[in-house]
Write a structure and sequence with these properties.
The chain is an alpha+beta fold and about 800 residues long. The protein folds into four domains: about 100 residues, no CATH class; about 120 residues, no CATH class; about 240 residues, Chondroitinase Ac, Chain A, domain 3 (Sandwich), CATH 2.60.220.50; about 250 residues, Rhodopsin 7-helix transmembrane proteins (Rhopdopsin 7-helix transmembrane proteins). It is built from 15 helices and 31 strands. The strands form six sheets. Strands 9, 12, 13, 14, 15, 16, 17 and 18 form an eight-stranded mixed β-sheet that branches. Strands 19, 20, 23, 24, 25, 27, 28 and 31 form an eight-stranded antiparallel β-sheet that branches. The chain has a six-stranded mixed β-sheet with strand order 1-7-6-5-4-8, with no helix packed on it. The longest helix has about 35 residues. The chain starts with 10 loop residues before the first strand and ends with a helix.
């Protein structure tokens, strides 16, 4: 089990078989409670008088009871000897909360390693320690991506840390992931002791994902020594790649709270200011960045802090999507602060240069390009700054020449992947009521450490469309102005289905927003009619296939096209119906949605190919009424027809995928609008040929009728064939031709729906019910069935 997939909200009371239960507050053995790492709470349960308390959550793994840390939860003891818990999603899978109805004090206590300490019962560790300078990391094992792991170090006794001969300490606040040369940097929780505290034990945490204590390691002992330094009794961590951090200064300016998800409490009135752990964490990080006074910071520091900012804002977004406690105004406010903080961070990467220099890096949520030019630059113009989904052309050389004192300038270009969730497209206020869609990533362009920021010419931004382009939509190049998106100073230069070029006369934060008209409200009666009609059509497709398979047919009758037509359309309609019924679940998996749309493309297209083949066979039948069987077999064999019926459709789909790999998987799990002609093109060609063949069939039938006026019986047969031909044309093309002319008219939509869904019904009526031989076999079957029932009744 994994409780991360549960949509937790509010407070819960636990039961097992109707018996009140509680979450264990002592270590639970591995693989219990239906999961790999069972979760328990550390710190014991409160009493009724304690009120609401917060408890850390631990998961047992690898012989350590708190190997996995999870977000803290709130606990309250209630009158009546039971507890309620404000549960939140765990940090990882497979973690799940445990529950028990009785005491589990027999469970093992926290597992700690045996540490080897020198014999110093009366010796002060402050006078008996090993000095470790930064080069000691060379003794750590080096694993994938050069991450360090202190698990390989033979720890023994007490250690004092140094960095470049300066006394250092292990941080007691959260450290950014990937810091300290490792994947999971280790820090101590609970703060450092004072000299009078003596030796204390501190838990060790490792930051990963979105929680500062996602991984726990064995506790260590700490002592404060006179002279303002600390010594530590270090032990091997629980896992790789993790390593102890060291710092010579306090790093609380960038991380000083634990990241946790927002939880909601019943009956609690929201307060002004931060209302969740994630909000407090983001505020603390932003305040720390605002207080940074360094002009230049190392790239590793900037990327670590920037990653923490975007992770914390991601927690805000997760909170806002799961609750309504964060207003849009607050989201916009956080967006402003995040943008300003990021711009300040990126500005610390700008360094003086005589010619030109550049810095670039990519994180999960942002791509950054920084270009700097100096007074002796030899370039005519700077190269285009490119990210995956956007680019910018700016006359940085001209801007530098306008800075008379320094003759230098720098541009910072950032492309955000998730910023649209903070700065939503709905903040684009327009007079008309339309749907606003963010068609690009949100980008920022600034001129850091540049005295004169006046542009010499407009700046051009190229946006790659990240969503399906609607030709009927209206595109706007916008920039962020404190609380809303506006278009002042920006315009669209050119656009197509893949990208748009915008021109702006100033720098700021930009995006591309498309406005589309709101669709009419879903008609529940039309949806019900669609479900009923498609279901009925599927039933008759199945009956037709059973009839073709079980009944005996005359030697001159060739049903290969009709059988394959039924198979293709039955599969297509069934898959389409199931997809629409489970669309909400399927849409979460874009690859599955794209695969389904490709399969639907193939099935429907093969159905149309078989319609064309059936039209050709009908033409041959009418052309050679006196020798249908021999002619048809001479011209077209069943094997050759099957090759054509499926290979043509498969080839069209393969070419479509090759030319446009992203042309599948629309919101309805169908072909995207920019690729729809890969389906409509072949369909239009087939319908055109069917129309020509139909006219030829009518002409030939008319000639045959004129020659056989005296033969009444033969005329009757010919008239039946004429009726079948007309019905066949309706089945093969009429309903789809009608689809080009509906244009939102309800009557035509209903007619199109009925005709399109009842192809199986027409096939069953025309080729089964109206066939004398088949009707005779049906009568014999039902007669035998009735006789069998009567005989069974008599015996009873």
């Amino acid at each position: 089990m994994c409780d991360r997939s549960v949509s937790w909200s509010g407070w819960y009371r636990l039961f097992i078989n109707s018996t009140s239960a509680h979450i264990p507050d002592t270590c639970v053995a591995q693989y219990r409670c239906g999961t790999d790492a069972p979760l328990w709470i550390r710190g014991g349960h409160p009493t009724v008088t304690d009120g609401v308390v917060t408890r850390d959550v631990c998961g047992n793994w690898n012989n350590f009871c708190c190997y996995f840390g999870s977000y803290p939860i709130k606990v309250k003891a209630c009158p009546g000897d039971y507890y309620v818990y404000e549960l939140v999603s765990p940090t990882l899978c497979k973690l799940a909360y445990c529950a028990d109805t009785g005491s589990i004090n027999t469970s093992p206590t926290t597992v700690t390693p045996v540490t080897i300490s020198p014999a110093y019962p009366s010796v002060d560790p402050c006078n008996n320690y090993t000095e470790l300078d930064e080069p000691w990391r060379a003794n750590s094992s080096q694993i994938s991506n050069s991450y360090k792991c202190d698990q390989s170090v033979s720890w023994s006794g007490w250690y004092r840390l140094f960095i470049n001969n300066m006394s250092a300490h292990i941080p007691d606040t959260c450290v950014a992931q990937y810091s300290c040369g490792t994947y999971i940097p280790l820090w101590i929780r609970g703060g450092h002791p004072t000299v009078t505290d003596g030796v204390v034990t501190r838990d060790v945490c490792g930051y990963a994902g979105s929680f500062c204590c996602s991984f726990g390691s064995y506790p260590i002992k700490v002592k404060a020594c006179p002279g303002d330094y600390y010594v530590y009794e270090l032990v091997s961590p629980t896992r790789c790649p993790s390593a102890y951090c060291a710092a010579v200064t306090n790093i609380s300016i960038i991380t000083n709270t634990t990241v946790a998800p927002q939880t909601t409490s019943a009956g609690v009135t929201p307060q002004e200011g931060p209302t969740s752990f994630s909000e407090k964490h983001l505020q603390n990080i932003l305040e720390g960045i605002e207080n940074i006074t360094d002009e230049v910071l190392p790239l590793t520091n900037v990327t670590s802090i920037l990653d923490m900012v975007l992770n914390a804002s991601g927690e805000i977004l997760q909170s806002s999507s799961s609750s309504s406690s964060i207003s849009e105004a607050k989201l916009a406010s956080y967006g402003n602060r995040v943008l300003k903080a990021n711009e300040k961070l990126i500005s610390t990467l700008v360094k003086p240069t005589d010619t030109n220099d550049s810095v670039s890096f990519t994180l999960a949520a942002v791509e950054v390009e920084v270009f700097m030019v100096g007074p002796n630059v030899t370039l005519d113009k700077i190269p285009r700054l490119d990210t995956i989904n956007s680019s910018v052309d700016i006359d940085l050389i001209g801007i530098a020449k306008n800075n008379n004192e320094t003759r230098s300038a720098a541009v910072a270009f950032m492309s955000y992947n998730t910023m649209e969730n903070l700065l939503k497209p709905d903040f684009f206020n327009t007079s008309n009521d339309t749907i606003k869609t963010m068609m690009s990533t949100v980008i920022s362009a600034t001129l850091p450490k540049t005295t004169n920021t006046k542009l010499t010419k407009p700046v051009n931004f190229t946006f790659k469309h990240i969503r399906e382009f609607d030709p009927n939509g209206s595109l706007s190049c916008v920039y962020w102005n404190i609380s809303e998106w506006i278009v002042d100073g920006c315009s669209v230069l050119k656009t197509n289905s893949s990208y748009t070029v915008c021109s702006c006369v100033h720098l700021s934060t930009f995006a591309l927003i498309m406005q589309t008209s709101r669709p009419s409200e879903s008609d529940s009666l039309l949806d019900l009619l669609n479900l009923v009609c498609v279901t009925v059509g599927l039933v008759f497709f199945s009956l037709a296939l059973l009839t073709f398979a079980l009944c005996q047919w005359s030697p001159g009758v060739n049903n290969v096209a009709r059988i394959n037509l039924c198979i293709s359309l039955l599969s297509a309609h069934l898959l389409f119906l199931l997809t629409q019924q489970f669309l909400r679940l399927i849409r979460r998996h874009q690859v599955l949605c794209a695969v389904i749309s490709g399969v639907l493309h193939f099935l429907f297209l093969s159905g149309f190919v078989w319609m064309f083949i059936e039209a050709v066979l009908l033409f041959i039948c009418v052309k050679n009424l006196s020798q249908i069987s021999s002619k048809k077999r001479e011209v077209l064999s069943n094997g050759f027809l099957c090759v054509i019926g499926y290979t043509v459709a498969l080839a069209v789909v393969a070419v479509s995928v090759g030319l446009n790999t992203k042309g599948y998987g629309s919101e309805e799990c169908w072909i995207k609008k920019d690729n729809v002609w890969s389906f409509l093109g072949p369909v239009c060609v087939i319908l055109a040929f069917n129309m020509i063949l139909f006219l030829c069939i009518i002409i030939n039938l008319y000639s045959t009728l004129k020659k056989r006026n005296a033969e009444v019986s033969q005329m009757k047969i010919t008239k039946i064939m004429t009726f079948k031909t007309l019905a066949q044309f309706v089945v093969l093309g009429c309903s789809w031709i009608l689809g080009f002319f509906t244009d939102g008219r309800k009557e035509l939509e209903i007619l199109f729906l009925i005709l399109n869904s009842q192809q199986g019904t027409f096939i069953f009526l025309v080729y089964c019910v109206l066939n004398n031989e088949v009707r005779l076999q049906y009568r014999n079957f039902f007669r035998c069935l009735c006789c069998g029932l009567k005989s069974n009744t008599k015996k009873t």
